[in-house]
Write a structure and sequence with these properties.
The chain is α/β, with parallel strands linked by helices and 171 residues long. It contains four helices and eleven strands. The protein starts with 19 loop residues before the first strand and ends with a helix.
């Protein structure tokens, strides 16, 4: 069974550097590398692959009857805290269910809750923007594979196409 006793996780000095293109952090949306793909969506292996490519990763998480699950629309993949602990410095954890918030509030993970809010703050004080919303020094969800002119002042982009966005940023 999962132990949720580990609180206030300490971050190791082994933090990987994020893929930054012109100071823009590129975040994989749900573990995608090259567009939406249900075989990759919120799957631990796909998330690990994104991190190996140097991208951060936004994941969708729930807590149901004491079990952590990954899944956007529904809980589909059970995980344990060691998965979160191992990858915590590269994850942007989207709380998809209110029941997980009391647990997340006891951790040092970078997590957030939003529904249709234009902007929310993560637990690390980062500005997370809903698709199409651009705020200076914020992280904006951008589903397509074009770079908006607003990228010049964005801190990061969360995208379904991190490989393509990384290439575009290099041009």
């Amino acid at each position: 069974s999962n132990s949720h006793a580990r609180h206030r996780n300490t971050r190791g000095s082994h933090m990987l550097s994020s893929t930054k293109a012109n100071s823009l952090t590129i975040i994989s949306h749900r573990g995608y590398l090259d567009g939406p793909d249900t075989t990759r969506e919120n799957k631990p292996d796909a998330i690990a692959e994104c991190i190996q490519h140097g991208f951060d990763c936004e994941i969708d998480i729930r807590l149901i009857e004491g079990q952590l699950y990954l899944g956007h629309d529904d809980p589909h993949t059970p995980i344990n805290t060691s998965f979160l602990d191992t990858n915590s410095n590269r994850l942007w954890i989207h709380a998809k269910h209110l029941d997980i918030i009391p647990y997340l509030a006891t951790t040092t993970y970078n997590w957030f809750w939003h529904e249709t809010d234009k902007v929310t703050l993560t637990s690390h004080g980062k500005i997370w923007c809903y698709p199409g919303t651009y705020v200076p020094n914020a992280y904006t969800v951008m589903i397509d594979k074009t770079l908006p002119k607003e990228k010049e002042f964005a801190a990061g982009i969360c995208t379904d196409f991190p490989l393509e966005i990384a290439k575009l940023c290099q041009k």
